[in-house]
UniProtKB/TrEMBL annotation:
Protein name per the record: Serine hydrolase domain-containing protein
Pfam families: Beta-lactamase (PF00144)
InterPro entries tied to this protein: Beta-lactam-related, Beta-lactam/transpept-like, Diverse_Enzym_Activities
A single MF term (Gene Ontology): hydrolase activity
Listed Gene3D superfamilies: DD-peptidase/beta-lactamase superfamily
Known EC number: 3.-.-.-
Keyword Hydrolase: yes
Top EC group: hydrolase
The keyword Disulfide bond belongs to this UniProt entry's keyword annotation: no
Keywords, sorted A to Z: Hydrolase
Domain Beta-lactamase-related: 16-323
Residues spanning the membrane: none
Organism domain of life: Bacteria
Lineage: Bacteria, Bacillati, Actinomycetota, Actinomycetes, Kitasatosporales
Length: 342
């Protein structure tokens, strides 16, 4: 048993999740990969091809599509919301820039449960349009799923195509991520890993996006909704470790993954989280120029460009309940062990 497997088997024994899958490697391929546990606590053993709810790991994948649109001239990082979404003109979000949405510096508040009072797509989007800014744009970093919902709408408007089609065409297809996408069909749902026993839905969620705001939006949104198997996340990790040349020009990728918010004491790239000196979700083992993203369901992808390495961790830590923070220690131990691989 490898050190990584030992850590993840132990996490299951402590009931942090029912199942986990992982891959650590470089552009040339994985150094260590595998899976352990079951799809649900009363479910069948993992076989390696399961679909995982990526949760907020959706954000940087959508961000890659956004940056591809920037390269093509369809979007401008300095462009403002009102240019792309006429309904927002004249409001407090009209002058927010695409870059501010990507770096979580727009002033939009963070995890707002709009779904509770607005159970329809139209109602939720109207609530988003009227949601007051919490801080002045550009003044601080506040992680905001609402900002990425808005970013998804902007990408659709600028490209004249639905978000799921954009992500598939600009990210998944070039990388061969053929089994990654929003809203799995019935056949794919049978391969999904269980998430929460959701009080709002009254059932254990399997194959439907865990995020409730995304549910109301139809399962396709800029902040959450993608499902993927381990093999596809490996493809993404290998590409990112090698500079993502299949997706973006080198200068665009460098701009995307650079730190843009150091003045605010939290490192954010364009849709990526940087390596914070204190409180990093992956601990201190990754290099200072590393970047990645975590997902609420217990997923993450992290890349250390100096080492040319990626690390993918997929779990269902919200099953059967979102309570508990055991994933924090597991994730940090995983990355410490991953860094030691040679």
């Amino acid at each position: 048993m490898s050190a990584l497997e030992d850590i993840l088997v132990s996490g299951r024994a402590r009931r942090v999740y029912s199942g986990a899958a992982w891959s650590v490697g470089a552009a040339a391929g994985p150094l260590d990969r595998g899976w352990t546990g079951t799809r649900a606590w009363d479910g069948p053993p993992l076989e390696g091809d399961e679909r995982w709810d990526l949760a907020s790991v959706t954000k940087p994948i959508v961000g890659l599509a956004v940056m591809a649109l920037v390269e093509r001239g369809a979007l401008d990082l300095t462009g403002v919301v009102g240019t792309y979404l006429p309904d927002y003109r004249g409001g407090d979000k009209a002058d927010l820039t695409v870059a501010q949405l990507l770096t979580h510096t727009s002033g939009l508040p963070g995890q707002v449960p709009l779904y509770r009072e607005h159970p329809t797509r139209g109602g939720l989007l109207e609530a988003l349009r009227s949601l007051p800014l919490r801080t002045a744009p550009g003044s601080r970093v506040e992680y905001s799923s609402q900002g990425f919902i808005l970013l998804g709408l902007i990408a659709e408007s600028a490209a004249g195509a639905p978000l799921d089609e954009l992500v598939d065409r600009l990210v998944c297809a070039p990388l061969g991520m053929k089994e990654t996408g929003f809203t799995p069909d019935i056949a794919l749902r049978t391969r999904a890993v269980a998430t929460e026993d959701c009080p709002w839905r009254g059932q254990v969620v399997v194959g439907e996006v865990h995020d409730e705001n995304a549910v109301v939006l139809g399962g396709i949104a800029g902040h959450a909704g993608l499902f993927a198997p381990l093999a596809d996340m490996e493809r993404l990790g290998r590409s990112l470790a090698g500079g993502a040349s299949e997706l973006l020009r080198p200068e665009t990728f460098a701009l995307m993954t650079a730190a843009h918010t150091d003045a605010h004491a939290l490192r954010r790239g364009l849709a990526w989280q940087g390596q914070d000196p204190v409180g990093s979700p992956v601990g201190p083992s990754c290099g200072p120029e590393s970047f990645g993203h975590t997902g609420f369901t217990g997923t993450s992808i992290w890349v250390d460009p100096a080492a040319g390495r990626y690390a993918v961790l997929l779990t269902n830590r919200v099953h059967p309940s979102r309570e508990g923070d055991g994933i924090v220690a597991v994730r940090r131990a995983f990355h410490t062990a991953a860094d030691a691989l040679r």
